[in-house]
Amino acid sequence: MIEVPAADPDICKYHGPILIAGALVLDPEGELHRPLAQDILIEDKVIVALGDEARSRGQAAKTFDARGLIVTPGFVNAHCHSHDTLLRGLFEQMTLETWGAVAFPFHWPPRPTEEIAVRTRAHAVECLVNGITTIQDMVTIVDFEQDHAAAVAGAYSEAGIEAVIAPQYSDLAGRAGVPFADDCFAAEEIRCLGDRSDFRPIVEKLTSIFTGVSVPGVSWALGPVQPQICSEDFLQWTAGYSAETGMRLYMHLYETRAEAVLARRSLPEDMGSAVRRLVRLGVATPRLTIAHGVWIGGREIDELAQHGVGLATNPVTNLKLMNGFAPIRRYHDAGVVTGLGCDNSSASDAQNIFQAMKTFALLWAMQSPSNDQTAAAAAFRAATVGGAKLLGLEGKVGRIAPGYRANLTFIDATGPAWRPLNSAVRQLVYGETGRGVTHVMAAGRFVVTDGKCRTVDEASLCRDIDRIREAMETDLAGVIGRAAMLTKSYAAVAARVAAEPLEFDARLLGPTSH
User: What's the confidence (pLDDT) of residue 196?
Assistant: First the structure.
């Protein structure tokens, strides 16, 4: 039996050519069941050769012994939020609305910059040790404070993870996103949902962040949080700015039944469709990725596909917040590019791509013919090449092939989950938990070795987390108290939503999985 050797302690400091020797290379576009042992040659942060060519060209390179290891591309977390990392474990069996009344940062008093940096650093480390090397973070930066934006970007850059950051924004009052709000909430409760803002000062602050905060490995994107709480003027600005700059944009859409009911009741000019509204305003382009897309009609999915819009599905959060699950097979069959996200750490409770892949595969199987046998491969591709496309990184990350960045995840294949090796992709998706991740390379640099993050002092980080979390206690109690005052009103909304029929014009819905 092959024993996996410990990594050279100095390998993290090495920046020259590296020959990864003897790895079982599991590429999403290669052999998925019985991958071959191959060498991988890395120069200047990029994969330059595989197999015999790598060994021939890499004779002068530093050799890294990868025998007994499955090597996958570094995984892509196509949708997440770092702002609630310190709230993990607080919530269970809560609706999105009641959870969000505590978890969303705008319900809290202003946070110190150190807290922003520590929670982002914790988020980055959790991703890295779970084999994730590239993320899309829809972070809430309250009041768009530039020092907070710099703290988020700096934490990611220092940790060595590649991040596409989309600060969330909206300009309508919170009541605009809640169906039956005027009937179910008292006047003072309505004020707790948030006031309307002029979008023009928000634009100034956003563009100041985009131009003023620049660090290696981090890029910026647009994050209109939800279409129902963004004015048409703001959405049109978003579409125009994206077209002008090429900047990608990310948005939550149809996460809950309430959102679908709200769209059907409030958008008669768009046949009750939030998708049609995005098309009409020019937002629905190949630069747009929607997150969730659970309560959606079949013809709306077709419209998204026609306009090149992508989907970042978040199956663990959707189930934990009791919202159901996206018709992922229907999206796939329509041609919608699909990536996989881990979402909020206080909603899914983990930045664990292995949990997400397994849940994706199980839901895919439920929506497919029996004996289809494509679920594991679809989950693996969503977590690699699919996510890469959604982040605008197609051809750069998500594969193990010449010309791609050397983002690699090394998994111990000597453990019981991998013996015997019958199908690498199935054992990866259904059997691996993340405990087998031994080493992680990002842009040609080892950032995790022997299961430990080497770019961040984990012991020091844990002390910082404990200290800051203790200091949050008083504020947390106040936020929970205010949220509890809204519980009955949200329950009234939920009852109205549940009673509302979701039967609409057949021209809009078409076939659907719901």
Answer: 86
Report long-range pairs for 100-106 (Cβ below 8 Å, ≥24 apart).
Answer: 101/479, 101/482, 101/483, 101/486, 101/490, 102/476, 102/479, 102/480, 102/483, 103/344, 103/346, 103/347, 104/140, 105/140, 105/142, 106/140, 106/142, 106/194
User: What pLDDT, in 10s, does the model give residues 371-381?
Assistant: 999 999 999 99
pTM higher than 0.85, yes or no? yes
CA distance 258 to 180: 10
Average pLDDT over residues 207-225: 97
27-74 pLDDT tens trace: 999 999 999 999 999 999 999 999 999 999 999 999 999 999 999 999
**Helix, strand, or coil here: 95?**
coil
List of residues 6+ apart from 493 with CB closer than 8 A? 97, 178, 179, 180, 181, 184, 258
pLDDT of 4 reads 66
Q: Which amino acid is at 190?
A: I
Q: Please give the mean pLDDT across all residues of the chain.
A: 94
C-alpha–C-alpha distance, residues 127 and 75, integer Å: 9
Locate 168 and state its tokens: 């969330």
| C-beta of residue 159 within 8 angstroms of C-beta of residue 194 | no
Report residue 273: phi and psi, to 5°: -120, 120
User: 10 Å Cβ neighbour count for 466?
Assistant: 10
Task: Identify the band that residue 11 occupies on the pLDDT scale cut at 50, 70 and 90.
Answer: confident
In terms of DSSP H, where are the helices of 246-404?
257-266, 274-280, 298-306, 315-320, 328-334, 353-366, 375-381, 387-390
CA 235, 239, 245, 251 torsion-angle sign: positive
In degrees and rounded to multiples of 5, residue 150 shows phi and psi of: -65, -35
d(CA 438, CA 40): 17
The full length of the chain comes to 514
* Radius of gyration for the chain, computed over Cα atoms and rounded to the nearest angstrom: 23
Omega before residue 286 within 30° of 0, cis: no
Q: Mind spelling out the 3-state secondary structure of 274-306?
A: HHHHHHHCCCCCCCEEEEECCCCCHHHHHHHHH
> DSSP state, 416?
G
Which pLDDT band holds residue 503 (cuts at 50, 70, 90)? low
Contact by Cβ (8 Å): 130, 434: yes
The confidence band for 3, taking pLDDT boundaries of 50, 70 and 90, is low
Please give the structure tokens belonging to residue 56: 């021939």
Check residue 8 and give its pLDDT.
Answer: 75
